[in-house]
Amino acid sequence: MSRARSMRVRRGKKKNSVADVDITSLLDILTILLVFLLQSYNSSGVIINVPKEINLPISQSESVNNFGVNVQVSQSQIWVNDNEIINTTDPDKRSQLDQGDRRIVPLYNELVKLKETVKQSEKLSPEVKKFSGVVNLVLDKSLKYSYLKKVMYTCGAAGYKEFKFVVMSEAN
Amino acid sequence: MIRIPSTKKRAKTEQKLNLTPIMDAVFIFIFFLLMSASFLKIYEIASDVPIISDQEPPKDQKNPLALTLTAEMNTITFSRGVPSRSFKTFRRDANGEFNYEEIHQFLVELKKSHVNENTIMFDPAGELTYEEIVKIMDAVRMLKNTDEAIYKKNKDGIDEKVKDLFSKIIFSNLMS
Predict the structure, then answer these.
(1) Domain covering A58-169 assigned CATH 3.30.420 in the classification
(2) pLDDT over 90 (residue B133)
(3) Closest CA relative to residue B20, chosen from A26, A48, A164
(4) Among the partner residues B11, B41, B130, nearest to A141 by beta-carbon distance
(5) Which of A65, B39, B60, B133 has the fewest CB atoms nearer than 10 Å to its CB?
(6) C-beta atoms of B131 and A136 within 8 A
(7) Among B66, B25, B87, B174, which Cα is nearest to A161's?
(8) Considering only CA atoms, which of A94, A151, A57 is closest in space to residue B174?
(9) ipTM score here?
(10) pTM value?
Protein backbone atom coordinates (compact mmCIF):
# COMPACT_ATOMS: atom_id res chain seq x y z
CA MET A 1 0.00 0.00 0.00
CA SER A 2 2.82 2.33 0.83
CA ARG A 3 4.33 1.62 -2.57
CA ALA A 4 1.09 2.62 -4.30
CA ARG A 5 0.98 5.88 -2.36
CA SER A 6 4.56 6.67 -3.21
CA MET A 7 3.82 6.24 -6.92
CA ARG A 8 0.80 8.47 -6.63
CA VAL A 9 2.88 11.20 -4.99
CA ARG A 10 5.54 10.86 -7.65
CA ARG A 11 2.99 11.10 -10.44
CA GLY A 12 1.37 14.20 -8.89
CA LYS A 13 4.61 16.21 -8.77
CA LYS A 14 5.05 18.58 -11.67
CA LYS A 15 8.35 19.40 -13.13
CA ASN A 16 8.90 23.10 -12.41
CA SER A 17 11.16 24.08 -15.28
CA VAL A 18 12.50 27.65 -14.92
CA ALA A 19 13.05 29.42 -18.22
CA ASP A 20 16.75 30.15 -18.48
CA VAL A 21 17.45 33.12 -20.72
CA ASP A 22 21.06 33.74 -21.57
CA ILE A 23 21.43 37.47 -21.02
CA THR A 24 25.14 37.69 -21.84
CA SER A 25 24.53 39.04 -25.34
CA LEU A 26 21.93 41.47 -24.01
CA LEU A 27 24.47 42.85 -21.54
CA ASP A 28 26.98 43.19 -24.37
CA ILE A 29 24.49 45.28 -26.31
CA LEU A 30 23.67 47.43 -23.30
CA THR A 31 27.35 48.08 -22.59
CA ILE A 32 27.99 49.19 -26.16
CA LEU A 33 24.87 51.35 -26.08
CA LEU A 34 25.84 52.93 -22.76
CA VAL A 35 29.35 53.82 -23.91
CA PHE A 36 28.02 55.23 -27.16
CA LEU A 37 25.34 57.35 -25.49
CA LEU A 38 27.76 58.66 -22.87
CA GLN A 39 30.14 59.70 -25.60
CA SER A 40 27.46 61.59 -27.50
CA TYR A 41 25.96 63.12 -24.34
CA ASN A 42 25.31 66.83 -24.54
CA SER A 43 25.23 68.52 -21.15
CA SER A 44 23.51 71.70 -22.38
CA GLY A 45 20.25 69.90 -23.11
CA VAL A 46 19.68 72.08 -26.17
CA ILE A 47 18.56 70.24 -29.27
CA ILE A 48 19.20 72.08 -32.49
CA ASN A 49 17.97 70.59 -35.70
CA VAL A 50 20.31 71.13 -38.63
CA PRO A 51 18.44 70.76 -41.94
CA LYS A 52 20.18 68.68 -44.59
CA GLU A 53 20.48 71.76 -46.82
CA ILE A 54 22.80 73.39 -44.28
CA ASN A 55 26.50 72.62 -43.95
CA LEU A 56 27.80 74.07 -40.71
CA PRO A 57 31.29 75.58 -40.61
CA ILE A 58 33.92 73.93 -38.42
CA SER A 59 35.18 75.89 -35.44
CA GLN A 60 37.50 75.51 -32.46
CA SER A 61 34.80 76.87 -30.16
CA GLU A 62 33.92 74.85 -27.07
CA SER A 63 31.06 76.96 -25.74
CA VAL A 64 27.94 74.88 -25.22
CA ASN A 65 24.69 75.97 -26.81
CA ASN A 66 22.01 78.04 -25.08
CA PHE A 67 18.25 77.99 -25.30
CA GLY A 68 16.85 80.47 -27.77
CA VAL A 69 14.98 80.85 -31.00
CA ASN A 70 16.60 78.82 -33.78
CA VAL A 71 16.94 80.55 -37.12
CA GLN A 72 18.19 78.17 -39.80
CA VAL A 73 19.38 79.64 -43.09
CA SER A 74 20.38 77.75 -46.22
CA GLN A 75 21.09 79.11 -49.71
CA SER A 76 17.39 79.16 -50.63
CA GLN A 77 15.40 78.70 -47.40
CA ILE A 78 14.95 80.19 -43.95
CA TRP A 79 13.36 78.33 -41.06
CA VAL A 80 12.42 79.60 -37.61
CA ASN A 81 12.27 76.80 -35.05
CA ASP A 82 12.04 74.31 -37.96
CA ASN A 83 9.07 76.11 -39.59
CA GLU A 84 9.83 77.18 -43.13
CA ILE A 85 9.39 80.94 -43.48
CA ILE A 86 11.12 81.64 -46.77
CA ASN A 87 11.69 79.44 -49.78
CA THR A 88 12.91 81.09 -52.96
CA THR A 89 11.59 78.20 -55.06
CA ASP A 90 8.06 78.58 -53.65
CA PRO A 91 6.20 81.67 -55.00
CA ASP A 92 4.13 81.88 -51.79
CA LYS A 93 7.21 82.05 -49.59
CA ARG A 94 9.39 84.52 -51.46
CA SER A 95 11.61 86.84 -49.47
CA GLN A 96 10.41 90.43 -49.07
CA LEU A 97 12.81 93.14 -48.01
CA ASP A 98 12.23 96.60 -46.62
CA GLN A 99 14.15 99.33 -44.77
CA GLY A 100 16.58 99.79 -47.66
CA ASP A 101 16.77 96.03 -48.43
CA ARG A 102 18.15 95.32 -44.97
CA ARG A 103 15.19 93.74 -43.20
CA ILE A 104 13.66 90.41 -44.22
CA VAL A 105 9.95 90.99 -43.58
CA PRO A 106 8.62 87.40 -43.13
CA LEU A 107 11.50 86.57 -40.79
CA TYR A 108 10.94 89.75 -38.81
CA ASN A 109 7.21 89.01 -38.45
CA GLU A 110 7.82 85.47 -37.25
CA LEU A 111 10.48 86.52 -34.73
CA VAL A 112 8.25 89.27 -33.34
CA LYS A 113 5.37 86.79 -33.07
CA LEU A 114 7.54 84.40 -31.06
CA LYS A 115 8.78 87.19 -28.83
CA GLU A 116 5.25 88.38 -28.15
CA THR A 117 4.13 84.83 -27.32
CA VAL A 118 6.90 84.50 -24.71
CA LYS A 119 6.15 87.91 -23.26
CA GLN A 120 2.45 87.12 -22.95
CA SER A 121 3.30 83.85 -21.19
CA GLU A 122 5.52 85.81 -18.80
CA LYS A 123 2.55 87.96 -17.81
CA LEU A 124 0.31 84.96 -17.24
CA SER A 125 2.72 83.01 -15.11
CA PRO A 126 5.79 84.22 -13.21
CA GLU A 127 7.35 80.77 -13.43
CA VAL A 128 7.72 80.95 -17.19
CA LYS A 129 11.26 81.52 -18.41
CA LYS A 130 11.75 85.16 -19.33
CA PHE A 131 12.47 86.27 -22.85
CA SER A 132 16.23 85.85 -23.24
CA GLY A 133 16.70 87.63 -26.56
CA VAL A 134 18.99 84.82 -27.70
CA VAL A 135 18.85 83.70 -31.30
CA ASN A 136 20.75 80.59 -32.41
CA LEU A 137 21.90 81.19 -35.98
CA VAL A 138 22.27 77.92 -37.87
CA LEU A 139 23.83 79.15 -41.09
CA ASP A 140 25.20 77.43 -44.15
CA LYS A 141 28.96 77.90 -44.46
CA SER A 142 28.79 79.02 -48.10
CA LEU A 143 26.50 81.99 -47.40
CA LYS A 144 27.90 85.42 -48.14
CA TYR A 145 28.19 87.97 -45.37
CA SER A 146 26.00 90.41 -47.32
CA TYR A 147 23.08 87.99 -46.79
CA LEU A 148 24.02 87.12 -43.19
CA LYS A 149 24.00 90.81 -42.42
CA LYS A 150 20.34 91.00 -43.45
CA VAL A 151 19.47 88.02 -41.24
CA MET A 152 21.36 89.51 -38.29
CA TYR A 153 19.89 92.95 -38.84
CA THR A 154 16.38 91.47 -38.92
CA CYS A 155 16.99 89.56 -35.68
CA GLY A 156 18.32 92.72 -34.03
CA ALA A 157 15.36 94.76 -35.28
CA ALA A 158 12.95 92.16 -33.87
CA GLY A 159 14.45 92.62 -30.39
CA TYR A 160 16.92 89.75 -30.21
CA LYS A 161 20.13 91.18 -28.81
CA GLU A 162 22.36 88.12 -28.59
CA PHE A 163 23.52 86.13 -31.59
CA LYS A 164 24.82 82.62 -31.10
CA PHE A 165 26.47 81.28 -34.23
CA VAL A 166 26.01 77.52 -34.22
CA VAL A 167 29.16 75.79 -35.44
CA MET A 168 30.42 72.25 -35.69
CA SER A 169 33.23 70.93 -33.53
CA GLU A 170 36.54 69.97 -35.13
CA ALA A 171 36.15 66.58 -33.44
CA ASN A 172 33.32 65.50 -35.79
CA MET B 1 -21.50 4.19 -23.14
CA ILE B 2 -20.30 7.56 -22.08
CA ARG B 3 -17.13 7.63 -20.13
CA ILE B 4 -16.76 10.00 -17.22
CA PRO B 5 -13.97 12.45 -17.87
CA SER B 6 -10.84 11.67 -16.02
CA THR B 7 -10.18 13.78 -12.94
CA LYS B 8 -6.47 13.40 -13.43
CA LYS B 9 -4.82 16.67 -14.22
CA ARG B 10 -2.68 16.65 -17.24
CA ALA B 11 0.83 17.85 -16.72
CA LYS B 12 1.18 21.22 -18.37
CA THR B 13 4.34 21.60 -20.30
CA GLU B 14 5.62 25.18 -20.08
CA GLN B 15 6.45 26.65 -23.44
CA LYS B 16 9.93 28.07 -23.63
CA LEU B 17 10.33 31.00 -25.91
CA ASN B 18 13.52 30.89 -27.89
CA LEU B 19 14.78 34.45 -27.65
CA THR B 20 18.06 33.96 -29.48
CA PRO B 21 16.89 35.00 -32.99
CA ILE B 22 15.00 37.99 -31.54
CA MET B 23 18.12 39.10 -29.68
CA ASP B 24 20.16 38.75 -32.85
CA ALA B 25 17.65 40.85 -34.74
CA VAL B 26 17.55 43.52 -32.01
CA PHE B 27 21.33 43.70 -31.93
CA ILE B 28 21.52 44.22 -35.69
CA PHE B 29 18.69 46.76 -35.50
CA ILE B 30 20.38 48.79 -32.75
CA PHE B 31 23.68 48.68 -34.57
CA PHE B 32 22.00 49.85 -37.77
CA LEU B 33 20.18 52.73 -36.04
CA LEU B 34 23.28 53.90 -34.23
CA MET B 35 25.32 53.87 -37.41
CA SER B 36 22.67 55.73 -39.41
CA ALA B 37 22.16 58.41 -36.73
CA SER B 38 24.47 61.37 -36.99
CA PHE B 39 25.29 62.90 -33.63
CA LEU B 40 27.06 66.15 -34.36
CA LYS B 41 28.98 67.96 -31.69
CA ILE B 42 27.82 71.51 -32.10
CA TYR B 43 28.95 74.56 -30.22
CA GLU B 44 28.37 78.28 -30.48
CA ILE B 45 30.17 81.55 -31.00
CA ALA B 46 28.53 84.45 -29.20
CA SER B 47 28.16 87.97 -30.48
CA ASP B 48 26.12 90.93 -29.28
CA VAL B 49 24.00 93.24 -31.36
CA PRO B 50 25.75 96.61 -31.67
CA ILE B 51 24.07 99.47 -29.84
CA ILE B 52 24.16 102.89 -31.39
CA SER B 53 24.62 105.59 -28.80
CA ASP B 54 25.08 109.32 -29.14
CA GLN B 55 26.62 109.61 -25.67
CA GLU B 56 30.18 110.69 -25.07
CA PRO B 57 32.67 107.84 -24.60
CA PRO B 58 33.81 107.29 -20.97
CA LYS B 59 36.73 109.49 -20.03
CA ASP B 60 38.28 107.22 -17.43
CA GLN B 61 40.25 105.35 -20.09
CA LYS B 62 43.23 107.35 -21.32
CA ASN B 63 44.08 105.38 -24.43
CA PRO B 64 41.24 103.02 -25.34
CA LEU B 65 42.37 100.20 -27.61
CA ALA B 66 39.10 100.25 -29.61
CA LEU B 67 40.37 97.37 -31.73
CA THR B 68 38.71 97.03 -35.12
CA LEU B 69 39.18 94.23 -37.64
CA THR B 70 38.27 95.07 -41.23
CA ALA B 71 38.16 91.98 -43.43
CA GLU B 72 38.22 92.65 -47.16
CA MET B 73 38.38 90.00 -49.87
CA ASN B 74 42.20 90.05 -49.94
CA THR B 75 43.26 91.83 -46.79
CA ILE B 76 42.62 91.85 -43.06
CA THR B 77 43.40 95.19 -41.46
CA PHE B 78 43.56 95.99 -37.73
CA SER B 79 42.84 99.50 -36.55
CA ARG B 80 42.98 100.99 -33.09
CA GLY B 81 42.20 104.13 -31.13
CA VAL B 82 39.62 106.89 -31.39
CA PRO B 83 39.61 108.10 -34.12
CA SER B 84 40.55 104.77 -35.65
CA ARG B 85 43.88 104.33 -37.44
CA SER B 86 45.12 101.17 -39.08
CA PHE B 87 48.33 99.65 -37.77
CA LYS B 88 48.62 96.14 -39.22
CA THR B 89 47.52 94.45 -42.45
CA PHE B 90 47.58 90.78 -43.42
CA ARG B 91 47.23 89.57 -47.02
CA ARG B 92 46.25 86.25 -48.52
CA ASP B 93 49.16 83.91 -49.26
CA ALA B 94 49.97 82.22 -52.59
CA ASN B 95 47.24 79.62 -51.95
CA GLY B 96 44.63 82.33 -51.53
CA GLU B 97 44.30 81.73 -47.78
CA PHE B 98 44.84 84.05 -44.87
CA ASN B 99 47.50 82.93 -42.41
CA TYR B 100 45.21 82.63 -39.39
CA GLU B 101 48.04 81.45 -37.14
CA GLU B 102 50.04 84.58 -37.88
CA ILE B 103 46.98 86.74 -37.16
CA HIS B 104 46.45 84.86 -33.91
CA GLN B 105 50.06 85.33 -32.78
CA PHE B 106 49.85 89.03 -33.57
CA LEU B 107 46.76 89.33 -31.36
CA VAL B 108 48.41 87.35 -28.55
CA GLU B 109 51.23 89.91 -28.52
CA LEU B 110 48.69 92.74 -28.54
CA LYS B 111 46.76 91.15 -25.69
CA LYS B 112 49.87 91.12 -23.49
CA SER B 113 49.83 94.90 -23.41
CA HIS B 114 46.02 95.15 -23.12
CA VAL B 115 45.04 92.33 -20.77
CA ASN B 116 41.76 93.95 -19.74
CA GLU B 117 40.49 94.46 -23.29
CA ASN B 118 38.09 91.82 -24.61
CA THR B 119 36.15 93.62 -27.30
CA ILE B 120 36.85 93.69 -31.00
CA MET B 121 34.76 95.41 -33.65
CA PHE B 122 34.39 93.18 -36.67
CA ASP B 123 33.77 94.70 -40.08
CA PRO B 124 33.72 92.01 -42.79
CA ALA B 125 33.16 92.63 -46.51
CA GLY B 126 29.88 91.45 -48.02
CA GLU B 127 31.58 88.97 -50.37
CA LEU B 128 33.29 86.98 -47.61
CA THR B 129 31.75 83.59 -46.88
CA TYR B 130 30.47 82.60 -43.45
CA GLU B 131 33.11 79.85 -43.30
CA GLU B 132 35.92 82.40 -43.62
CA ILE B 133 34.28 84.67 -41.06
CA VAL B 134 34.17 81.77 -38.56
CA LYS B 135 37.88 81.08 -39.19
CA ILE B 136 38.72 84.73 -38.52
CA MET B 137 36.58 84.70 -35.37
CA ASP B 138 38.41 81.57 -34.16
CA ALA B 139 41.79 83.27 -34.64
CA VAL B 140 40.56 86.30 -32.72
CA ARG B 141 38.54 84.84 -29.85
CA MET B 142 40.43 82.22 -27.94
CA LEU B 143 43.82 81.62 -26.43
CA LYS B 144 45.10 78.15 -27.26
CA ASN B 145 46.83 75.83 -24.83
CA THR B 146 50.02 76.19 -26.86
CA ASP B 147 50.02 79.99 -26.57
CA GLU B 148 52.23 81.79 -24.11
CA ALA B 149 50.40 82.23 -20.80
CA ILE B 150 49.15 85.75 -20.08
CA TYR B 151 48.33 86.87 -16.55
CA LYS B 152 46.42 89.81 -15.14
CA LYS B 153 45.79 91.03 -11.62
CA ASN B 154 42.35 90.34 -10.24
CA LYS B 155 40.46 92.44 -7.66
CA ASP B 156 42.51 90.98 -4.79
CA GLY B 157 45.79 91.73 -6.53
CA ILE B 158 46.46 88.07 -7.32
CA ASP B 159 47.71 87.03 -10.75
CA GLU B 160 45.18 85.05 -12.70
CA LYS B 161 45.52 83.46 -16.09
CA VAL B 162 43.76 85.13 -19.01
CA LYS B 163 41.62 82.59 -20.84
CA ASP B 164 40.25 84.57 -23.77
CA LEU B 165 41.86 86.73 -26.39
CA PHE B 166 39.31 89.17 -27.83
CA SER B 167 36.21 87.11 -27.19
CA LYS B 168 33.59 89.85 -27.37
CA ILE B 169 33.00 90.22 -31.10
CA ILE B 170 30.64 92.91 -32.30
CA PHE B 171 29.64 93.20 -35.94
CA SER B 172 29.99 96.93 -36.40
CA ASN B 173 28.59 97.21 -39.93
CA LEU B 174 25.16 95.64 -39.41
CA MET B 175 23.39 98.96 -39.85
CA SER B 176 25.23 99.99 -43.01
Answers:
(1) yes
(2) yes
(3) A26
(4) B130
(5) B60
(6) no
(7) B174
(8) A151
(9) 0.75
(10) 0.76
